[in-house]
Design goal:
This protein has seven helices and no strands. By secondary structure, the protein is mainly alpha-helical. It has one domain (about 10-145). The longest helix is centred in the middle third of the chain and has 28 residues, at about 60-85. It is globular, with a radius of gyration of 16 Å. Keywords: Membrane, Transmembrane, Transmembrane helix. This is DUF1440 domain-containing protein.
Amino acid sequence: MSSSTSNNISLKSILMVAFIAGTLDGAAAVIILAKFKFAATFKYIASALFGKAAFSGGTEMILAGIFFHYLIALSFTLFYAIIARKLQFLSANKLVSGILYGLLVWMIMNLIVVPLTQIPHVDFNLQRALINAVILIFCIGLPIAILIPGERH
């Protein structure tokens, strides 16, 4: 396996951007959404696969949540890296691209991913949705759009 994608973006660069975005998003979730409850944040993420058992689990559930969190950040980083190399307007408008990508990530996570998991259902709350969207714009969309190189001319 090569250490770079077919578009010459190094695997190291993709991993670094995913780590930065995942760390920013994780920190925002812990600080803003969970009021500094680190373990609860990552047990919640682990509940996607393990259901309610994640909340009574210990370190293994926290680690599973961290793993899932960074895997998702890596997936969104890799996807953006692939499309940014093909769509010139993404690299030409990094600010707009980052905002739109953050909103796309919110939609994918909330309308597709989360409903397919075992995460406990909560009713829609506009304020919480807006906070989550802003977090994803600033912590996922913008860092990925700014740090991933776009199409070369």
